[in-house]
Amino acid sequence: MIFFISWSHSDPVYSDYYEACNMLISPAGVSSGFKLGAWDKQPDRVMLDSGAYYYLTSTGPPVTQSSVFRKQLRMFRGVRSKTIFCHLDHPISPRDSSQVSAFLAVERTLGNACEFMELYRRHNLHKNPLLQPLAVIQGVDADSIRFCAGELEKMGFELFGLGSLAPLYNPAEIMERIKVAAQVVGGENLHIFGISRLDVISQLKKYRIRSLDSTRPIKAAIHNAVFYSNPFRTYGIDGSRNADRYPATLKEPLPCPCPTCREKTSLLLETGSKKSTNARALHNYYHLVRHLTQSPPIPRTPQ
Predict the structure, then answer these.
(1) Are 155 and 87 contacting, i.e. CB atoms less than 8 angstroms apart?
(2) Do residues 168 and 277 share a domain?
(3) Has residue 169 been placed in a domain?
(4) pLDDT tens-digit profile of 145-189?
(5) How many CA atoms are closer than 13 Å to the CA of 113, on its beta-carbon side?
(6) Residues 16 and 59 sit within 8 Å (Cβ to Cβ)
(7) Which of 214, 236, 264 marks a domain boundary?
(8) Torsion angle of alpha carbons 179, 230, 223, 41, nearest 10°?
(9) Does residue 249 sit in the same domain as residue 206?
């Protein structure tokens, strides 16, 4: 299973620190002039999503499929990595998941997917061996998910992602949606967007899920949480804000070969600065990837 770390402009650049790093980057999370191709150390794989969830909750003017596509093209200039382009979908909020709302979201998603494929082919991106388009499946139950996935298959997509899972809290509901989507398009062709729950992630292998993404390393770092693996566990930082949320706290770091612990261990348990938060995120990334893939990510050799 391939793990993509979700990245925003203020996060550490994980590919600067790790070999074979896979990153999901949203147009909504970077400046209008951002170009991934300018990075010296590029990720192994990149997924350019549409930023749909951000745009749905934004008070700004509505975005269009063509405007998102143009921004993705600008972001892609100079990129040497295998890259996935996602169309603009319409996420479904749990607060408004009525049949009518779900139907409208699916219809808008399908309309954008159709327009996206026209743009993708018009720009001859289907001829670029580095690129692959991804269709986003929306729905709130088995019928709507099957319908959406089936229509996307008819458009010629071969890679799919399942959306609107991140706001859900019920693991059984999440797994039921994943199971239905995997039955339609095949788990080996399916990406799961925005999943952080380890109890859910641990069940994905039985459906042969291709990939997933998460912001868990940076979000945990913001809340002063420190990961370790083999076995996977989470510690709070002794004396810090939120320390009482965790079953155990640390006064000193444990042995670890990640870039943070190798170069400046003291940052791991510091709090209150963006520098220490990002250092902790790099550490958390190491242990989360090690846990999910059963293989530790390879830190880059310091220059």
Answers:
(1) no
(2) no
(3) yes
(4) 999 999 999 999 999 999 999 888 899 999 999 999 999 999 999
(5) 28
(6) no
(7) 214
(8) -80
(9) no
Could you tell me if 135 and 157 are in contact, meaning their C-beta atoms sit under 8 angstroms apart?
yes
Q: Of 214, 244, 269, at which residue does a domain stop?
A: 214
Cα separation, 247 vs 214, whole angstroms: 23
Tokens (6 digits) for 148? 């959406």
Pair of tokens at residue 39: 């990075």
Write out pLDDT tens, residues 67-119: 999 999 999 999 999 999 999 999 887 777 677 888 999 999 999 999 999 99
Please tell me the total count of domains within the chain.
2
- Cα–Cα dist 69/59, whole Å: 21
Quick check: 195 and 214 in contact, CB under 8 A? yes
Q: For residues 65 and 190, what is the distance between their CA atoms, to the nearest angstrom?
A: 22
Segments forming the whole domain that contains residue 204: 2-214
| Helices 171-185, 142-154: crossing angle, 10 deg rounding | 30
pLDDT, residue 97, reads 64
Tokens found for residue 91: 């996420």
Provide DSSP, 36-93: GGG-SS--SEEEE---HHHHHH-SSPPP-HHHHHHHHHHHHTT--SEEEEE-------
Q: How far is it, in rounded angstroms, from Cα 100 to Cα 31?
A: 35
